[in-house]
Amino acid sequence: MPPTVPHRPVFLHGRSLSMLSRRTMLRGAGAVVAGTTILASTVACSDGAQDDEAPQPDPLAAHAARARSDAAAATAAIAQNPAAVDTLTVIADQRTAHADALDAEIARLTPPPTVSGTAAAETGTAEPVPAPALTELSTALSDAGRSAADDARALSGYRAGLLGSISAACTLASAAVAG
Fold this sequence. Notes:
Blueprint: E1 11-12, E2 15-16, H1 22-52, H2 59-80, H3 85-109, H4 134-154, H5 157-178
Antiparallel strand pairs: 1-2
Helix pairs in contact: 2-3, 2-4, 3-5, 4-5
């Protein structure tokens, strides 16, 4: 006959395990399983979702570039159309203000990029824009207004209002140049 080992009770929080009910043990095991499942799903979601997706370009960036291009075109058209100097100056100033407002909104919601010591961003000078005909400038402004209105419908809040305002200004500027 094998030697008998004296039974020593195991204590948990001051109580013997033999004193805990089966229901209490199952509750504890269930809580451990639920906690482990939640932790595993949180880790799985946070690792894969952010690393696989590339950051999407801001929808306002294209409008800012277009506004700067329109401002340069309006400025270039001043030399060819001295009778419309006042109108073209206002349009150039407005489109520059539009680009600045769009850039400010993009910067507000976009974290600043990390700049490494070897890859600093280079700022080049803008190429001179050939002077467009007034009809070409009017068409470009009309297209910019339509594009801003279309994108305003897809956005919400301040961004939608900003694009709506730009759309209205471009439509009026187009009519002023054409008229």
